[in-house]
Amino acid sequence: MSPIRSTTSSKFSTASVKWKQFPKFRRLWSAEFFCPHLQRHFKKRCQRIKILHLLILPEAQKVNAPDREKEMRKKKFPALGGRLRAARTGRAVLGFFAAATIAMPSAQAADRTVSELIPVGQTVGVKLFSDGVLVVGFSDGESPAKDCGLKEGDVITAIGGQSLDTIEEFRQLLAENGEDAAALTVKRGSRTIELSAEPEKDEDGEYRLGAWVRDSMAGIGTMTYYDPQTASYGALGHGVTDVDTGQLLPLDHGSIMDASVKAVKKGERASPGELKGDFDLTRDSGTLYANTECGIFGKLSAEDAAKIVGAALPIAKKDEVKTGKATILATVSGNETREYDIEIEKIYSPSGSTRNLLLHVTDEELLAQTGGVVQGMSGSAILQDGKIIGAVTHVLLDDPSRGYGIFIENMLSAAGLSSE
């Protein structure tokens, strides 16, 4: 999901997540993303939208465990929605994944060109961990955080010159600092600034700034392509953003996991559908090195790369994409990836990041099963005339049979690649 704004607001309750096969740390997920480290009955505020990404974001926390990945295996992950903004068509649109701070891939891939990719269309679980902690809100009334000039969307990367990545490290450094003024190193957009805050003790004797912060996110989406030359992949077609601030999550590291679809909530007008199933948190199938407005990118392990058996297809140039018949690769039952018929109804400006084309699901089987495009299908590969042309990114809320897609060239550009 790219950063988005909304016009009006409404409330959504967090989804109840039940444990499944707890010894293996597998859990039930709903097709939005699940947030680590949340209070069990926390109610999220979402925006009533013109556009919502089909990704699930984490809620803010004042407390965190020392090992974020270990905590993800222990905590329930409630489903959350993303930020929204008005669509040009005036229709409500739901997107699939939220967006995160752009982290460019390694230099070795920056100048590389590709001519073919293997389209995938398989659902995957995603874990992202931030570089620093993201400020997503403040406690009521006056607070040290407000007094020192912190703002929502700021990223605290160090206290007293000591770098931090987790909420636990944030708490520990505040405790070590005590009641003295704490020197905060803060990233605000492209700038790095220094602020000074005087922590206050709470009723438990812990030092606080009165700011809500976030250090990680988790959820599900769909892998778009695999590059056999480099074992790299692209997924989602949009990035991962914070649900409260709309800011891209500053990425420190992340990974993807195997996922299996167990059920589908069918999409209806004004009620987006979603995939439901399991993903395995005990084993990573690949690393994540970039989270951009146009998708997330990483490398598969050798074991998981060997499982990609589809044929490589040529990459379509933007000017080769046309209105008319096309197909998408999606997984809406178990691990079975299938090709479904769609119609591309309109082509938009190629300079747009995540909404380059308007698509209409025409496949009767997919319509009967899902109602069209549902949450969790973000990243489903779009094919036309024997070429990979893009990925699904959003669904229209007033017509779930229609949605938006991104050009594959825009995804490759965000990954530091170009097509031949």
Task: Supply the number of helical segments.
Answer: 7
Number of strands: 31
Placed side by side, the strands forming the largest sheet appear as: 11-18-19-23-22-20
Compute the CA-based radius of gyration. 21 Å
Helix content: 10-25%
Question: What's the end-to-end separation, in Å?
Answer: 27 Å
Instruction: Give a short account of the largest sheet.
Output: 6 strands, antiparallel, barrel
Average residue-wise pLDDT: 77
Overall body shape: elongated
Key features?
single chain, six-stranded antiparallel beta barrel, 31 strands, mainly beta, 420 residues, six-stranded antiparallel barrel
In short:
11% of the residues lie in helices and 44% in strands. The chain has helices at 68-74, 107-110, 144-148, 167-177, 302-305, 364-370, 408-414, and strands spanning 8-12, 19-20, 26-30, 33-34, 44-48, 51-52, 79-80, 93-95, 112-114, 116-119, 123-138, 155-159, 162-163, 182-188, 191-197, 200-201, 207-208, 211-227, 232-235, 251-265, 274-280, 286-292, 295-300, 313-314, 324-333, 336-347, 357-361, 381-384, 387-396, 399-407, 417-419.
Question: Helix and strand layout, with pairings?
Answer:
Elements: E1 8-12, E2 19-20, E3 26-30, E4 33-34, E5 44-48, E6 51-52, H1 68-74, E7 79-80, E8 93-95, H2 107-110, E9 112-114, E10 116-119, E11 123-138, H3 144-148, E12 155-159, E13 162-163, H4 167-177, E14 182-188, E15 191-197, E16 200-201, E17 207-208, E18 211-227, E19 232-235, E20 251-265, E21 274-280, E22 286-292, E23 295-300, H5 302-305, E24 313-314, E25 324-333, E26 336-347, E27 357-361, H6 364-370, E28 381-384, E29 387-396, E30 399-407, H7 408-414, E31 417-419
Parallel strand pairs: 6-8, 9-31
Antiparallel strand pairs: 1-5, 2-3, 3-21, 4-7, 8-29, 10-18, 10-24, 11-12, 11-18, 11-20, 12-13, 12-14, 14-15, 16-17, 18-19, 19-23, 20-21, 20-22, 22-23, 25-26, 25-28, 26-27, 27-30, 28-29, 29-30
